[in-house]
User: Fold this.
Amino acid sequence: MTPLHTDRTYEQQLGQLRSAVLEMGGLVEDQIGQAVRALVDRDQTLARATIDRDHTVNRFDVEIDELSLKLLALHQPAARDLRLITTALKITTDLERVGDMAAHIAERAIELSAELPIKPYIDIPRMADLARDMLHRSLDAFVQESVELALGVCASDDAIDQLHEQLFRELLSFMAEDPSTVSRAMRLLFVSKYLERVGDHATNIAEMVIFMAKGRSIRHLDKLPREL
Assistant:
């Protein structure tokens, strides 16, 4: 006979869900940092270790999905709890994709490690710092159910987009002036695009936090609302 699930057990499982999302988020945040460090330091060993850790990210994705579905099936949550569980399901999808971006950066790091950089790596670490900060703040917003923090993340997306566009123009000029740089420049453009996508995923998480806290979707709005 299946044991009855008390309210205390239910609350513990909700806490476990929040903790697992945070742990997965911390892991992918670290993955981005490691991948960019491998690129800057031309460290193949670190790059390969980063790629290998992507299996751990994927395992978190599966475990959180299973816990969320278990909570939905056994407790039939409503209102705020239902929004929390469905938000966690969606957040892990974005976090898993951030993990993929980190692995892709590490792959480009391996490819570029044997070649001299065409320019000092300044903009890419800056983009990585911005992307990781956005991701960290979006997860803080999730834990605190803070609309204010989430809106701040959404507002930060323009800065990383501008850095990507700036780097794109710069690398394009390198390729135009010296065709021998094309291969290296293209790989750096990929890295820049991956980091820009990390910012997009952090924004997605922040938007889902707003839905979780307020029951209102701000996706696809032309501009951020002044208040919710």
In short: The radius of gyration is 20 Å. DSSP finds seven helices and no strands in the chain. The CA atoms of residues 62 and 92 lie 9 Å apart. The mean pLDDT is 90.
